[in-house]
Recover the amino acids of this structure.
């Protein structure tokens, strides 16, 4: 397990991406359509800042009905959004306010999606902080043999999911609520 207590800030980030339940968008062709992030002060575990942007997809610019239904993100929201390179520049400007941080996401999907989109747009990986898989960290710190989805993990610790599940900013805020258990400051 990574020692997260050595950092001043914990970046909790969640992405939403283009998707389809009919197989028309392949996994390696999915694109980020929302970045949701909260910056957490490591000592207090208080959210001190948040970041959210939609991103205009270019491979499959029209969102599927499944994607809109799952994420609640509208076609208008992505059409009016910056494309990936501009959105990443905005994210990096926001991140520049925070040094000595670690980047955490619920599983490895978000890190891998950033790698995929960055490669497609010929950009370097956008976040300089080391990455930690918070889903695995939660299971390890709580001695659980199973890895739980974010919504299931919230139920396990008796925290109600706030906002809309599968919206990046709402999921990032909900994941941040699990940090006391992830950092082994609380036990089940």
């Amino acid at each position: 397990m990574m020692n997260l207590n050595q950092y001043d800030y914990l970046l909790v980030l969640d992405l939403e991406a283009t998707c389809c339940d009919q197989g028309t968008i392949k996994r390696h062709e999915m694109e980020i359509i929302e970045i949701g992030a909260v910056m957490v002060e490591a000592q207090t575990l208080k959210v001190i800042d948040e970041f959210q942007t939609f991103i205009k997809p270019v491979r499959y610019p029209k969102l599927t009905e499944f994607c809109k239904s799952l994420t609640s993100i509208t076609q208008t929201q992505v059409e009016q959004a910056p494309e990936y390179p501009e959105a990443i520049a905005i994210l990096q400007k926001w991140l520049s306010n925070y040094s000595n941080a670690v980047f955490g996401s619920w599983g490895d999907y978000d890190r891998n999606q950033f790698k995929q989109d960055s490669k497609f747009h010929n950009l370097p990986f956008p976040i300089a902080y080391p990455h930690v898989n918070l889903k695995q960290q939660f299971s390890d710190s709580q001695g659980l043999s199973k890895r739980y989805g974010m919504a299931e993990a919230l139920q396990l610790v008796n925290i109600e999911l706030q906002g809309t599940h599968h919206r990046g900013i709402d999921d990032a805020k909900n994941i941040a609520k699990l940090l006391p258990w992830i950092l082994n400051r609380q036990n089940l």
